[in-house]
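SEVERITY: medium
COMPONENT: batch folding queue
REPORTER: lab tech (J.R.)

DESCRIPTION
The queue accepted two submissions in a row. Attaching both inputs and their returned structure tokens so the on-call engineer can compare them side by side.

ATTACHMENT 1
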Amino acid sequence: MSETPVPDTDDPLDEATGVYVDNRELLFGLVYNILGSVADTEDVLQETWLSWTARGRGRDLTEIERPGAYLVRVAVNHALARRAAIVRRQETYVGPWLPEPLVADDDPALRAESVSLALLVVLESLTPLERAVFVLNEVFGYAHTEIADIIDRSPAAVRQLAHRARAHVHARRPLYQAHPRVRREATERFVRAALGGNIAELMEILAPDVTVWSDGGGRSAAGPRPVHGRDKAVRLIAGFAGKGASKRLELRYRQVNGDAAAVLFQGENPYAVMVMDLTPDGERVSDIYIVSNPDKLTHVPREDA
């Protein structure tokens, strides 16, 4: 990976600030993909900043040959520690746990290495180390030797972690990705049918083995577990649309984790984010992810970025 040079300045804190700012976009993408939480990512970046500036005050940063790599190591290890806390929260979470969606049309993290919401759901089933290795290697292109330095493991151990993670992800997540235009058209068709109460249209667009994941966190209407099968999915979607009809929701089509999606607002407040995943032929919806927990939508902007 390319390195950011240390700025030419006599003030160590200015040096630290410049290097951190230059690497923040990369750090955000790495940490978010490891954690799946915007709020926790921001906390980890703050911890990384404090660790980095503490070093900048105490030592000449020119002693660090690869400051970007040093920052990545600090951020990833903070993220691994935070990941353990997230897993503990999930154990008492009400209903399915979905990642916090990144909603923006021009977010730096989305311009860089974008991981879909569907893939983030699969990554939730990896161990923290497997997930970190997968993100570093498969998403950001770090070599096994570089990852070994980051997580303080041997290259052989990293290769084993990478092999397990890759096999698990590929078994659950097809490599096929629908064309953005196809995904946008399918999303709009689904939303029109769902919000319009068109049951026949929903039955046509949903795959027979469709799964609906609804994350309300006990704070909003959502299923207690993922719903499998077209008939059950239609009933759940119809109930969700019925509850929303009385709230005068406003619909916006946005980019969520790099994919076309629907965002519903109630007044100025985000109400739900809906992301659809398609079958390999792009003809039907295979998975629906609905995030309506208000705690996971606090960062969703009202207007396009």
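ATTACHMENT 2
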Amino acid sequence: MKITILDDYQHVIKTLECFDLLKEQEVSVLHQSEKDNAKLVDLLKDTEILVLTRERTEITEELLSKLPNLKLISQTGKVSNHLNLDICTQYNVAVAEGIGSPVAPTELTWALILNTVRKIPQAIQGMREGKWQINIGTNVSGKTVGIWGYGKIGQKLAQYAKAFDAKVLVWGSESSRAKAVEDGFMSADTKEAFFSTADIITVNLRLNKDTYGIVKEADLKLMKENAVVVNTARAELIERGALVNVLNSGQKILVGVDVYEEEPIYDTNYELLHFENVVCTPHIGYVEESSYEIYFGTAFENVISYINGNPINIANPQVL
């Protein structure tokens, strides 16, 4: 069967150990995201199995309607907002779900916190320009780390904060806050108290209709001077334009961002890149070798099982 793998920006998928699972198959790997639907259809017109790299390409009804040969979409990780399961079912396309790990995104979140509070990227850039000790940062120790969303990533972040002698304040659903208190951490009484109390805030929520734009510009305006907000989850969790508006207002906050509303970004004039108090990374939360082996290993196993007539992990089994 003809297999196509999308959005391998780093040209690394064929170098993974798990790629051996597909060694007997006809595989094409695309390295650039194609935003033009007509061109994408042309690239995929003969594809029978599509392997996605997380959520880098949106699978629309318009696209599916023009891919009559497509039989299976093998997802790296779980199905999310880039793909509508009902529409896939309507076009008789099976969707196989995979697994992931919270380790790499949690570590990246903590790295962004450290880089943001210590202003490490700016210091490195200064040294490259022949300057010495151009700025001064602060510690995490003794600060209050606010965690919105106490799931797998939020729980790991709380333990990291504890190891750095920081206090932990959790906001989120009632069950999340109860779990945090059970684990020995503090729970915020209100969202307003959360934003006005925490020195460092991380947003670790799933994106859905209830969480879209859940962090408002008004929330960010409650933050302390020199407080930090880090988003490695989804850009759309923060109200569109809110971060830029607050930064342009002159409010003194620090920002660490790994996710963007439109990706990839090749425009060096992208607004967030030009604030001294912002650290940007190119959505690398899960982009790490062991994570790729987990994500793609399961996705490729699902592909081979389907080819062998024993489909597994199908999210819409009625198609079969």
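NOTES FROM REPORTER
The CA atoms of residues 215 and 238 lie 5 Å apart.
No errors were logged for either attachment.
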